[in-house]
Design goal:
The structure is a homodimer of 166-residue chains. With 166 residues, chain A is mostly helical. Chain A has helices spanning 8-12, 16-41, 48-59, 65-72, 76-88, 110-134, 136-149, 152-164; strands at 63-64, 92-96, 104-108. In chain A, strands 1-3-2 form a 3-stranded antiparallel sheet. In chain A, a hairpin with a 7-residue loop joins strand 2 (92-96) and strand 3. The first copy, chain A, starts with 7 loop residues before the first helix and ends with a helix. Chains A and B meet through helix 2, helix 3, helix 6, helix 7 and helix 8 of A and helix 2, helix 3, helix 6, helix 7 and helix 8 of B. The structure holds a DNA duplex (30 and 30 nucleotides).
DNA sequence: CTTGGAAAGTCAACAAGGCTGACGTAAATT
DNA sequence: AATTTACGTCAGCCTTGTTGACTTTCCAAG
């Protein structure tokens, strides 16, 4: 299985070894990706789950609970635990829907915006430095491969954020 | 702070919006990245932690426990729990070090190789299809950005694997 | 040869963050 | 009026991470 000659490789980089390196790169890079926010969070009572919730609330202010459930891909009980503490501690604010009063629209409070900013600054700093080190060409490829790696449903979520998000 | 004009942007793609998209791409892609092995694992008594251990034992047969600890970045108690079940179920085999008899060298058994193969086939299939969809240029960039995103220590681990692993 | 430190294993307890199942309430829809 | 939808919550479980303490084995250096 390491016997396949060139040919495939020169066209598409698809030896098992190349693929394995990609897998390992994902593993190690994801650790780096979460390291900085994690360091900030562990000094408080919050975890990675709180960060994710705040990120997407910040990204789509006024989003509903069920929308957030779809994006995060967790159960409502799991999300509720996180949302509960964010509400209690005044980082997130609720607003009943005007059109449909069953819906709860989520917003970050001033306080919440401050923390989100701190977390996202740290994470963006690492991303910025990685982009700088790799160069503009690489950034295109990076995003293309990641996008192709997503499940179709996840890709849809991702692209919906892109549209609304700029 | 959203006031920065062009200049930076045209050279290096470094608007906050670009960085935010990269962050979200990592988030959604990592879910896809782990989805296929997870589906296989949940039908058995194993989890993602078992997969990671098996992956790196397969990658570096005969590696020691402390080596594996450094790569995985967890505590020995955490790893030991996982390793315990893999040994008990006959997926992993131990060998006392010849030179230093305190060391335990880890190997996959026949049985272990079969499972590792199934998991890694699934994961490589997704990686292969993402690479194909994105093209050879993109693969270069993908790996370059991921590598730049790692902590220096993680990058060292990653590169040590590359050397020995081909 | 003794002693110190390194490699590994283990017990106990705990926390974060997933999960399922069941149930309740308010509001929209049919 | 009945059903469905959106949300919240209680209770309990699992995986996988953590700290702290302690032991055994073994290498290496004094």
């Amino acid at each position: 299985m390491a016997e396949n000659s060139t040919g495939d490789e020169s066209l598409l980089f698809l030896t098992d070894e190349q693929l394995r390196k990609g897998i390992e790169a994902m593993f190690f890079a994801y650790r780096g990706f979460t390291a900085d926010p994690d360091r900030i969070l562990e000094t408080m009572d919050y975890g990675r789950a709180h960060h994710r919730a705040m990120h997407f609330i910040h990204r789509s202010p006024g989003t509903t609970v069920s929308n957030l459930l779809a994006i995060l891909g967790v159960t409502k009980q799991s999300l509720n635990r996180v949302l509960r503490t964010l509400l209690d501690q005044g980082l997130v604010r609720l607003e009943k829907g005007r059109a449909d009063q069953r819906e709860r629209h989520l917003f970050l409070t001033e306080h919440g915006l401050v923390l989100e900013r701190a977390l996202s600054d740290a994470q963006r700093a690492r991303m910025r430095s990685a982009y700088r080190a790799a160069g503009p060409q690489a950034v295109q490829g990076f995003r293309a491969v990641l996008e192709a790696m997503m499940d179709p449903e996840q890709r849809r979520q991702y692209q919906r954020l892109r549209e609304g998000g700029s």
